[in-house]
Write a structure and sequence with these properties.
The structure holds 3 protein chains of 3 kinds. Chain A is an alpha/beta fold. Chain A has helices at 5-14, 17-39, 44-60, 62-75, 86-99, 111-116, 118-124, 134-141, 158-169, 177-194, 220-224, 247-258, 294-298, 313-317, 319-324, 335-345, 353-356, 363-367, 374-387, 393-407, 409-422, 442-445, 456-471; strands at residues 79-83, 104-107, 128-131, 197-200, 204-206, 211-216, 230-236, 240-241, 266-270, 284-290, 427-428, 431-432, 448-449. In chain A, the strands form 3 sheets. In chain A, strands 1-10-7-4-2-3 form a 6-stranded parallel sheet, with helices on both faces. Chain A has a 4-stranded mixed sheet with strand order 8-5-6-9. In chain C, 49% of the residues lie in helices and 11% in strands. Chain C has helices spanning 11-16, 18-30, 46-50, 54-67, 79-92, 100-109, 113-120, 150-158, 181-184, 186-203, 213-226, 235-242, and strands spanning 3-7, 33-36, 73-76, 110-112, 136-139, 207-210, 231-233. The chains are: A alpha/beta, B alpha/beta, C alpha/beta. Strand 9 (266-270) of chain A pairs antiparallel with strand 9 (200-204) of chain B.
Amino acid sequence: MSGSWFYRNVAEALADDALKAAIASTSSKKMASRAAAVREVENFDTLRDLAKQIKQHTLDHLDHYLDEFARNVEASGGVVHRAATAEQANACILGIARRNGLTSCVKVKSMTTEEIGLTAALEGGGVHTVETDLGEFIVQIDDDRPSHIVTPIIHKNRKQVATAMVRELGIEYTEDPETLTMHARRHLRGVFRTCDMGVSGVNFAAADTGTICICTNEGNGRLTVTRPKVHVALMGIEKVIPRLADLSIFLKILARSSTGQPITVYNSLVTGPRRRGDRDGPEQLHVVLLDNGRSRVRLSEYREALQCIRCGACLNACPVYRRIGGHAYDSTYPGPIGKLLAPLLGDSSRYADLPQASSLCGLCKEVCPVQIDIPGLLVKLRRDQVTGKNVPLMRRLGFRLASAMLTWPRGYHLGRQMARWLSAIGAEGEWIAKLPPPVSEWTKYHDWPRPAKRSFRSLWKEEQLSQRRNEK
Amino acid sequence: MSTSDKRVVAGLVEPDPASVRRVQLTDDLVAVFSQRASAVGMCVSRTTADNVGAHVANLLDTMGKPRALLESLATGTGALSASSPTGSPSLQEEKGFRWKLLIEPSLFCRSSITSTLADRADLLDAGSGDKAMFTAHAGITGVTAAVAETGSLVCSSGPDLWRGMSLIPPVHIAVVRVDQIVPDLVDLLGGLSSCRLPASLSVITGPSKTADIEGILITGVHGPGAVWICVVE
Amino acid sequence: MSVDVALFVTCLTDTFHSRVGIAVVRVLRHFGCNVHFPEEQTCCGQPAYNNGFHDEAVVMGRRMVDVFAGFEHVVTPSGSCASMVIHHTPELLADDAAYAEPSRKLAERTWEFGRFLTEVLKVDLASIPVRDDRPMTYHYSCHHRGIMTPEQATGMIRKLSGVDYRPLDNIDQCCGFGGAFGVIYPQISDAMVTDKLDCIARTGAEVVVCSEAGCSMTIAGAARRRGLSVTFKHVAEVLAEALGLMDDKR
């Protein structure tokens, strides 16, 4: 809606050529990689279908599986905490740090920790926290926010990365990505040697064995869950799956959808803390089960949104995301899935633009590995906005009037006729080139055709007559 | 399991492994594993049980030093691909260089490796602490299993094992026995469900990677930059 | 034996692209269909549905069911309207005692024009020599998803004998119309249609075949503003011209 914060963000993003170039080329590459990776798997659609069924079944019986998961985590020596809200989760994790005298935390990239603002809460509580995923590390040292759920600095180019690293690490200026990466590696190795707390997210949590699976590529994920003496894993409650065996299906579709890799480089399956005889590994494992609005969504007609496995394919596909980037959404989760999660888990009034800012092209649904009907859910959100009167009055009146006219033949014909007459305003021949305010925005960017001089119906009558003549 | 538990589980789809798997039990598992592991940037070579020591020694001699290793030796940059040793400076060209190695204590071929390398490598003691782990050039480990479908290594925690050995040194050398290769992820994860899982099980598929900066692929970020796999018949 | 077809012309085609409607009628008749036009038809309710005005969409959906009751086949030149009737109207009327079943039956009998030609009438496109010899490209509309793959949709033109077909880059990317979206977020819509025009310009095509009125209007309007000279035709028009049922549109 013009004048809203979203509208301003969009204008700013569209004017940023560097942003557009960065996102457009990376998104196309990832879509092409995904397509190639999917082609390699003959039964990909079967796998998607199974994944969807498993997720739906799990959501139907979520409490059962969460209970089973918790029992099995505890049986292997881990501790399970339940957090109804972001605040509770932060307090819980800070509490774990305090009780154990932990002051230095390393983190693996996790959108769930972004969702609750964990780093700020830890820092505020005196726990120095370092992001170790290369992209998130750059985000942290540059006081920025991630703009994609898988590739956080898709909006940054190498110059910007170099500038941040020179400033914060004092390295010699270079734009060579390999050299920059090696500097980050060297710096973070020092941190890994001394940290005492590791925080990760969870990609999948198997209820039957109490195992959590963390899917990463760089190695910081494994270091984070190995080096520190306490490992805290934060998971949204929707991450649980019934059986470890189900993981094979999800691992076959996750990375292919996300980056086009057959599988991520590292899949860390963690079942409890270290055992007697293990030479390394954390002494404590804490799993924090986060609700933060998920139960509410689960009981609503939007529950499908909780099937999401955070692959990011919908972001790579979305024509809107490609042009405005992730920051414009001002939400932990941007892109198509973000258009659902932001209003559903957060403030739906604040995010009123998001369900509207879509052409419903459906490419997201086509690439979603768990077959979430994103356009269908966006339409439902729009319906809720209408019934909740969260849509501008003029638009509501306009649609109601137009619908009333278009439903019945008399109104339909009158409407058509009026459209033809009114279209003469601002017309150049058979085109509407310039409309006056308050609808001047409509013709700001391109022309519209005028309704045809003769409607199909009037041509039909002639067509019938000539048909009959020909038959004679 | 209670009656209601049984009812819940009964509603869950039972995927037919035949419809999920991509590699059959009857496929040439060594060939598929080698091809897929190479495709993701690991270097695969084959040897026999009585030749492992000499084989590993040969790898260390001829594979050269991966970039991450060079970086830690501060002798300059120059990307070296672990899977194409030609053109990279070999050990012979670097006078006086001695590999610093960590070897899994219970590795079946440990003694044959240590005896063959006595003259050119220093064996570090992982038990002596972090210094050894963080200064080693290469970690030589066995595996719990390997997966042909994805070309993956599976390394577990366990008595007398260090998770860090396949993670911290810049080179990871994995010794895989042919009978440890399973066809598909379906077999790995289905099989694991029925055992008591270790505290940590890492499915490793390639050298450490990132593409965070402008989508450009870089290896050896935090984990090993080179993974050399010896398949032992 | 003649096939009975009721034409669902759609409000956009009726109003803006009336020639397309005639082309559809002539092509269907050419291939042996007995074409009816239920004059009481108005709008299927898609704009109301897409924008969340579901009470209104239900009323329009019920009317569609009533107007098209009793016809063996319902054919429409719009993929988006076909989708509405096939997928969304039955969902909207699922709990309506009187209309649930009839709406499902209507869904089963409703066809998008191109799919009807290839799957029901089994038209052999390769036997039709194209009349317009200018280079042609095809814009795959988002609403063909679920109806035809890009391969099948572009095949409607590609397979014609003698066609100078130019494939479009980034064919799966939306043109930016999106109904009200193009008006509420015109800047995003404009960024999308600009990229679409870049792809079209790169093909060197002089004709853009587009079987969706909303897309046509948007891309054509943007092309005109940009000074890009291309002619837009619906598949039905290309076929009608090729079969000698209509004069060439330039």
